[in-house]
Amino acid sequence: MIYNTGDKPGKGDYKCTHCRFMITLETDDDVLPPCEKCFKTEWEKV
Ligand SMILES: [Zn+2]
């Protein structure tokens, strides 16, 4: 399942589908940012 920048997919760990940089959303209200490494906008739940 792919999520996009601006989505609120819920707390958990997400990996950039382009460069594999990982982020953590701490709450269900957190919004996925652009990737801070490659600036792509697609994330995959880890
Ligand atoms: Zn990236």
Write structural notes for this entry.
With 46 residues, the protein is mainly beta. It has one domain (2-45). 0% of the residues lie in helices and 35% in strands. The protein is built from no helices and four strands. The protein has strands at residues 2-4, 12-16, 22-25, 42-45. The chain is globular and about 25 Å long. The model has no long low-confidence stretch (mean pLDDT 98). The structure holds zinc ion. The site of zinc ion has 8 residues, from loops. Residues 16, 18-19, 21, 35, 37-38, 40 line the site of zinc ion.
List the helices and strands and how they pair.
Elements: E1 2-4, E2 12-16, E3 22-25, E4 42-45
Antiparallel strand pairs: 1-4, 2-3, 2-4
The site of zinc ion has 8 residues, from loops.
Instruction: Please list the strands of the largest sheet in the order they lie side by side.
Output: 1-4-2-3
Looking at the structure, what is the overall shape?
globular
Can you give the helix content as a percent range? under 10%
| Rg result | 9 Å
Uncertain regions: pLDDT < 50 for 5+ in a row?
none
Counting structural domains, the number is: 1
Q: Structural class per helix/strand content?
A: mainly beta
H/I helix tally: 0
Order of helices and strands: EEEE
C-alpha end-to-end distance: 10 Å
Query: What compounds are bound to the protein?
Result: zinc ion
**Most strands sheet:** 4 strands, antiparallel
| Overall average residue pLDDT | 98
